[in-house]
Amino acid sequence: MLEEDFTHITSSPLIDWQAFANANVLITGANGFLPAYMAKTLLNLNTTLLKSAPCRVLALVRNYKHAREVFAPYLDPTFTKDSALGNHSGDLANFGVTADLKSSSTPKQAQRSFFRKFAKSPTSTTANPRILKEDKQVERKNQATNEKADSSSTILESQAKNKLTQPLESTQQTTPKNRQDLILITHDVSEPLSLPYPIHYIIHAASPASPRFYKDAPLSVIYPNVLGTINMLDLARINPVRSFLYFSSGEVYGEFAGEIDESAYGYVDPTSLRSCYAESKRMGENLCIAYGSEYGLPVKIARPFHTYGPGMKLDDGRVFADFVRSVVMGEDIVLTSSGEAKRSFLYLADAAIAYFLILTKGVNNEAYNVANEQGIVSIKELAQIIASLFPEKGLKVRFEAPKESYMPSPIMSCAVKTDKLKALGWSPKIAIEQGFYKTIRSYL
């Protein structure tokens, strides 16, 4: 995280950072570009503005190895995946295990134990005697082991709950490699989640956003946005959640010719594989509104448009990432289309301010566009801008046929409006030229 970006974010008068004092903040998809940046912002705040009352970041990830890379500056290098929950300095916890699974000595026994509860004889409505007999034999055989496991699990969870329900001590003596304010949780958000401590803020951002997933793994896109959203909203119902932020997307608008405010919707083909992203994001939004209506949850929705900055993946298939990668590698920028489609490009630090603003001051059950109205350019214009940032490299813009696996967006224009976000006092400060220059420099 660039120091100048952190200063830009935390110096914003729009955010009351003390709202996060002593709070537990759950961030799903925390390995991702945008949510990781929000997590790092909070962790850095704990060493500055929140020194006396730091928050705790609960970073939910699927890939532990990647999380170690993303959060390396905040983790104890001696910490291992097998470290106990009672430890800190970047704990790794897996709270997605039910009581049945935890009390069984092997995964196989756990699976059999669960399904035996519902096993019936083909000719009777009562439980199958043979299975019940086997149950008793298994129970006697593993009773000692299970009791020991249950006891250890109970003690471990009790220690964790006692520690994590209490405010953290001042971080004035905390070093970057000895953090008590970051908990890594390995879990598939598409599965229900239970945590042994209260959650005050939930930022649900788990979702593949790369076009390469739309064709090859559409269900991996749908599940986090639908099942994952249900699971996080259910978690919010049983916690003292002050605010729930759902990361949607500007793609929910579909093909729309006019100015795009939060009430403008265009055509999305539900039979197209590429629509797996837009349609599942739409469903996620409606789930948020439904839970907000039925249970009074304080839900807010952010609709990000193209966001770039240090830390973004340069191989995820999005054109602006490809352009940055080309400059970093000293290669010509290649366009696989006419480049006439127009998009809005927002620098990461400006986006982070917007997300925290929506989280803390946004209106419940409302959606907000997060984009740069002054940063709307065609793809061709963007390529030319990026190529010109480092004239000493002598890079050119070339045109080539698209790869067969790429699924481009059918949306040609993006006249996005951010009046609702501006009403909260927000406006972007980083111009496209400055933002992409800083981004490219971070990789050199």
UniProtKB/TrEMBL annotation:
Could you tell me which PANTHER family the record lists for this protein?
Answer: UDP-GLUCURONATE DECARBOXYLASE, UDP-GLUCURONIC ACID DECARBOXYLASE-RELATED
Q: Name one GO cellular component term.
A: cytoplasm
Which residues fall in a compositionally biased region of kind Polar residues? Answer: 151-177
| EC number(s) reported in the record | 4.2.1.-, 4.2.1.46
Indicate the segments forming the NAD-dependent epimerase/dehydratase domain, all copies: 197-371
State the SUPFAM superfamilies in the record.
NAD(P)-binding Rossmann-fold domains (SSF51735)
Q: Which cofactor does it need?
A: NAD(+)
The gene is rffG
Protein name per its UniProtKB record: Nucleotide sugar dehydratase
Task: Fetch the Pfam families from UniProt.
Answer: Epimerase
Q: Where along the chain is composition biased (Basic and acidic residues)? A: 131-150
Q: Where is this region: Disordered?
A: 108-177
User: Single GO molecular-function term?
Assistant: UDP-glucuronate decarboxylase activity
Q: What is the lineage of its organism?
A: Bacteria, Pseudomonadati, Campylobacterota, Epsilonproteobacteria, Campylobacterales
Q: Which UniProt keywords apply?
A: Decarboxylase, Lyase, NAD
**An individual GO BP term:** D-xylose metabolic process
